[in-house]
Amino acid sequence: MSSFRENLRLALGTINSNKTRSVLTILGVVIGVTCVILIGSILTGMNRSITQSLEGFGVNNVFVQKMNMGPRNGRPSRSERTRKPISYENYEAVKEGCKVCSQVLLTIYGQTISKASYKSLEMLNPDFQGTYPNFPDVMNMSVRSGRMFTEGENSHSAAVCVIGNDVADTLFPGQDPIGKPVMVNEHTFEVIGVFEKKKQGSVGENSQDTTIAVPYETYRKMFPSNKEHFLAAQSMQGHLDEAVDQVRAALRRSRRDKYDEQDSFGIATAESFIEQFHALTGGVAAVMIVISSIGLLVGGIGVMNIMLVSVTERTREIGIRKAIGAKRHDITLQFLLEAAALTGLGGLIGILAGFMGAGIIKLISPDFPISVPLWGVAAGLIVSVSVGVFFGLWPAMKAARLDPVEALRYE
Amino acid sequence: MATANLEIKPTPVPPPAGVLIHTDDLWKTYQMGSTEIHAVQGVSISIRRNEYVAIMGPSGSGKSTLMNLIGCLDTPSKGAYWINNRLVSEMNDDELAYIRNKEIGFVFQTFNLLARATALHNVELPLIYNGTPADKRIERAKESLRLVDLAERMDHRPNELSGGQRQRVAIARALVNSPSLILADEPTGNLDSKTGVEIMALFDELHRQGNTIVVVTHEHDIAEYAHRVIQIRDGKVFKDEPTARAK
Question: In CATH, what is the architecture of B49-75+92-246?
Fold first, then answer.
């Protein structure tokens, strides 16, 4: 019996002596594997990026709003749109009912697009909201300069605001915003603080950097028609799941949801957002697998074709080998290994090309956390070698079954 | 595939000791459309160890078919064939491959070397297929090449060697496994007469060293080197007699 190593050396020698043909044959496999690696890297980058930016909102927080949260298909249903807004009473019920929540934050915001301006500079659609002094604490923000407003300013409805980093950059380029008046939706607020820039996660800017936060009571007084609330309940370390249950129970009781009905509100955690996003990228990955499978199938048929040609060309060689004692499985192994080495080489080249592609994307967009996933490398290698074994099997068996007398006579 | 045979097969009687090749009523029949062609028709021969035999016959006489049968490249349609006390006429493909590897060293008219492999690798090949470890393999292949006087050419590929040198590589390959039979098919057919004489001298030397040699040829000059000539006509043994050299 001939050894595996002997056959591998033989296979590499054959590939090496037919370079052009080998390269053309494995092109399909190379492209298929490159696609798998590249798309896998981009998906990994997107997952990381989304994880980073969602974790920026606080991993221990339970978020509540009227509408369901997370990626959705099309418009929300009618029953979802006609839900009652989250009310101040709901907020009090959550504060009362959630025993494992260290603090609960209430935020109020409007449905219309806001506009902020300072002198001639304008900023469209900042994240304008009325909130409480514990806002930075719960939302994982810190004040870079100036200060957060106080409970006293809130209860007196003071016209002050704390602005996000992007707002400061847009409206006050090159100057200190503290003490300057900023106009939002026809009302003037004095800037008393600027938030630290959030860690950049995803492609594009972080919405938290466009925040303009004013005291809750101030917002209520100036925009009495706005009723949309947003709740963020911070759970004690390690009690996130309990916090979700307790917040949900308190809200259902407070909003009088019937026991056989769904929640009349959306509830989510950073983790649940990430899971939803993973489900989405999983779908993309499935489509990718189908597409690259087609590439690999075409590549595999190419390999089979070349192997059949190779068997015919080398009929005499097979005859010689059989005459001097090669058994059927020796010949099968030889051709099978040749096909597998061929496609495995294609897989390796594809993986390298994938790494290079990912490197180029990294150069173009340094903020995007693209990364080649280990499963992609493993899948690329395993699949490419399997393609060779699968499509090489028939030609290899054909070679092994050749009659030595006929094969030796072949010209 | 042999056709179903309703007669009761007598158990083949093994040959007496000292006999290496023994055929008993050997037949090979080919189906050509609706007609049957009997290429070998009831050949019974015995070749003892260390004999030097030439099988002669004009083309179409069935001597090539007989050679394929003796070389275990083909299976008979009928009859029994022993080599080295093994009944090979009943063996399957892989068992025949094992016998070819262990018992037979082939020397072909067209050399049949692997074009892309060096002389050393060509000689190594039979040892690869019986699982000899690499270091031992190379040692024995070198030894075999030394025997045919080609040790200094072991890194050359066949196209870098002359015809005579190629045939000597093929002989080294045939010898490397110490087979019980060296089977040569027109070994000088592709060589000029001077080189042919050299090759035949090499066979003489191998015979003196105790090897059993069967040469298939249609040339009288070549057959004269052997000690016994078996003439084949129409698939049958026509004459079987010692040559002048036997004395």
Answer: 3-Layer(aba) Sandwich (3.40)
